[in-house]
Design goal:
A two-stranded antiparallel ribbon has the order 1-2. The longest helix has 27 residues. It is mainly alpha-helical and 342 residues long.
């Protein structure tokens, strides 16, 4: 390909760079269909501009995210103080904290230890392997976002599928088992996200909206959320497992499989390092603090949460809890050399 044609191709690929602002300008001159919202079409133009740049990734997604921060105040739709507050919403810090937990767990391989620990005990048949993978995903998704959970465990599931291919020569049987494992991974991640407040971003958004609209009503905390969400999600997990088992593993659920493969992989991980122990400790500590922050009512007895022992200005909210604990990850000195981590 000549240098000239390469330049022409680059110019063609940059059309969204001009199309986004052009769509915005066109929309600003269109009359609003609702006189009560005179800036409606301007907001439509901003939305289309941002959507186009996000979809085409003509520039970095993070850069595109700042367009509303610039355009909405500039066009007079809303005050810059209002827009800036949305960029620093407390829920965002809960997202960040969850992502940092996920990154720490993945970096130090705790997800592999958990998965292999469960599979080495349950992986005696295709049916038990399916339940082991679904339960592992379900548990991790209770504390980490669905997408992050699947991204962490997909490599482990693919490794299991590869092991099964070696031991199960029948291609049709292997196809059914592989389909069940991959679908089970996706569904159990979504189901696990229902069980806790931090399991999925939609729960956190509901939590914020509820606190804003019904602050004087019965408050939501980790314990009373899980009191109804955990049983419901676990029943849904078992039901999904039974459905997948019936559809894909009906006649092959008892096909034997040697679990020593998982045990050997688990042994190859070696002993727990001090860094892994620290990440696990911070994860457990974060979970315990989430659970014990608010008062717990058991019949006529009230168990005081730790937040009640501090003055109101010092009480950390649920969305703030991950931040100081994640800072410990940066302060804790690594015991392994950097080249051993990456």
């Amino acid at each position: 390909m000549s240098e000239e044609s390469t330049e022409v191709k680059k110019v063609k690929n940059r059309w969204p760079l001009v199309a986004g602002p052009f769509i915005f300008i066109i929309c600003t001159f269109l009359p609003s269909p609702d006189s009560y919202y005179p800036s409606l079409m301007i907001m439509v133009g901003i939305t289309l501009w941002v959507a186009l740049w996000w979809l085409t990734e003509i520039t970095h997604i993070a850069v595109t995210s700042f367009l509303p921060f610039i355009l909405i105040p500039a066009t007079g739709i809303a005050d810059i103080k209002v827009i800036a507050a949305q960029y620093m919403d407390p829920i965002l810090f809960l997202f960040i904290g969850g992502f940092m937990i996920a990154f720490s767990i993945e970096k130090w391989g705790l997800h592999r230890r958990l998965a292999l620990g469960i599979l080495s005990s349950t992986g005696k048949s295709s049916s038990s392997i399916l339940f082991g993978i679904m339960f592992t995903t379900y548990f991790m998704s209770m504390w980490i976002s669905n997408t992050a959970t699947v991204m962490m465990l997909i490599s482990a599931v693919l490794a299991v599928i590869l092991h099964l291919k070696i031991h199960i020569p029948d291609k049709e049987v292997h196809r059914k088992i592989s389909s069940a494992l991959l679908i089970g991974l996706a569904y159990s991640a979504s189901i696990g996200g229902m069980a806790t407040l931090v399991g999925t971003p939609t729960n956190m958004i509901f939590f914020r909206a509820y606190n804003e609209k019904f602050a004087s009503e019965h408050p939501i905390n980790f314990v009373n959320w899980m009191s109804f969400a955990f049983p419901m999600s676990f029943v849904l997990l078992v039901f999904t497992f039974l459905v997948l088992r019936y559809i894909y593993l009906r006649h092959i659920a008892t096909v034997p499989f040697d679990p020593t493969i998982f045990r050997n992989d688990k042994l190859n991980l070696g002993k727990w390092t001090s860094d892994q122990k620290m990440v696990a400790f911070l994860f457990v500590l974060t979970t315990l603090l989430w659970f014990t922050r608010a008062d717990l009512q058991i019949g006529d007895t009230t168990l005081k949460g730790w937040a009640s022992f501090f003055p109101t200005p010092l009480r950390l909210r649920i969305v703030q809890l991950p931040s100081p604990l994640r800072c410990c990850c940066f302060l804790y000195p690594l015991k392994q050399r950097r080249e051993e981590i990456y």
